[in-house]
Amino acid sequence: MPLIIDGYNLLFAAGLVGSVDGEGSFEGERRALLDALLRVIDPKELTQTVVVFDSAKAPPGLPRVYNHQQITVRFASGYTDADEMIEELIRDHHAPKRLTVVSSDHRVQRAARRRRATAIDSDSWYRLMRQTRQRIRQQEALKPPPPKQPTAPAIPDSEVNEWLEFFGDIDVDELAPKESPTKRSTPSPVEDVPTKSAKPGRKKQQPGESKEGALGVFDDAYLKKIAQEFFGDT
User: What's residue 188's pLDDT?
Assistant: First the structure.
């Protein structure tokens, strides 16, 4: 979710004033605030975070816009104060309903609500973000570690040498199956198949030959002889 943060307003609300560089300096306090934001903002939202500081307290020679580990830092150069610049950023934002504005200044909060953005006091937001990140870290700490992949035991060099001595004299080509010559199948002789000639004319019946005999069946004389052998004279 995009964030616009009133830098010095949050700096005082978070209690970071005077926490670094002995009695404190604005440069050190700004750096401390930005580092604190890195610890509480979701890393996926850092590129959508803009922190605005008043230009009157900007260090000389520092660009008016720069990045602090993905956080965009802007100094309100050319504006009366940071509030005026934040109002313009809210007005020009392409998706104000998704925008969260962090400031305890009522003027900034009214500008956010006019665009239907979310406005929240600096101290409330910072406390909420710290609690959220702490809860996430505790949940991650309770997760069981990923299972370790089993590793194969190391084989001693002496055993490897024994294998090399044992298998070294084996000809791998001798272990391959021999290819048997392919057996050629001899074609079977083609039997003479009688060609079908033209349909012959009907054969005349010979004297004493029955019709069956003409068709290749036993004649009457042979059948009569067979009957005499089995049944006697008839």
Answer: 55
Residue 171: the pLDDT is 63
Residue with the larger pLDDT of the pair 81 and 155: 81
How crowded is residue 140: how many other Cβ atoms within 10 Å of its Cβ?
A: 8
Q: Which of 70, 119, 117 is nearest to 95 (CA)?
A: 117
Helices 122-142 and 26-40: angle between axes, nearest 10 degrees? 50
Helix (H) or strand (E) holding 169: none
- Closest C-alpha among 108, 136, 142 to residue 122: 108
> In angstroms, rounded to a whole number, what is the distance separating the alpha carbons of residues 27 and 34?
11
What's the CATH number of domain 3-142, 3.30.1310, 3.30.1660, 2.30.29, 3.40.50?
3.40.50
Question: Residue 63 and residue 59: Cα distance in Å, rounded?
Answer: 9
